[in-house]
Amino acid sequence: MTAASPGIVATTMLNAHYDSHEAYVFALARQMRKEYELIAAEFVLQIDAPDLAMERTVLFQDKSAAEFLKIAETHVAALNEALAGIPRDRVRLHCCWGNYDGPHIHDIPLSEILPVLYQARVGALSLEFANPRHQHEYEALRADPLPKDWLLIPGVIDTTTNFVEHPRLVAQRIERFAGLVGKERVVAGTDCGFGTFAGVGSVFADVAWLKLGSLVEGARIASDRLW
Question: Can you give the residue range of the structural domain that contains 83?
Answer without folding.
Answer: 1-127
